[in-house]
Amino acid sequence: MSSSRHRRPRASSRRSGSSLFHSEAPSARHLRVQSTLSEELSLLFRGELSDPRLEGVALTSCELSPEGRIASLGYTLPHDADPADVKEALTRAEGYLRSQLAQHLNLKRTPHLRFVLVGTAPRAEPEAEDKDGGDA
Q1: Per-residue pLDDT of the chain (136 residues; tens, 9 = 90+)
Q2: Do 110 and 96 form a contact (C-beta atoms < 8 A)?
Q3: For residue 135, is it within any domain?
Q4: Are 92 and 60 in contact (CB under 8 A)?
Q5: Which of 6, 47, 58, 90 is deepest in the core (most CB within 10 A)?
Q6: Are 61 and 74 in contact (CB under 8 A)?
Q7: How many CA atoms lie within 13 A of 65 on its CB side?
Q8: Number of other CB atoms surrounding residue 66 within 10 Å
Q9: What's the pTM value of the predicted model, to 2 decimals?
């Protein structure tokens, strides 16, 4: 007698990308891990990365995939930065960032980091700064 008769059929919707997780609200744990990742990565960006190509790059968002394997990180560039150089520097820094996350956070699996360019930071105009800070 075959035991395959008693097995449950596989859920084909999970494989096709239309996961059940997308329709459900994220759990409290998922949101907490996502927030902790965002905070830790912001600290690492401000204090640990020494690549001059990443000077002025700011993280704007962090979204953890439902299964926790990929963290999509939105970032903005300074107005004078070359997007290709920054993307290369971020790709090179991914291994270091993941190792630091693994050391600082108690996660079963450290997510892969996917960097997504959100935009360019607005150029600071000296005239606007003089008007705001003049006689106050």
Answers
A1: 555 566 655 554 444 444 434 556 889 989 999 999 999 999 999 888 999 999 989 999 999 999 999 999 999 999 888 999 999 999 999 999 999 999 999 888 999 999 999 988 777 665 555 555 555 4
A2: no
A3: no
A4: no
A5: 90
A6: yes
A7: 14
A8: 14
A9: 0.69
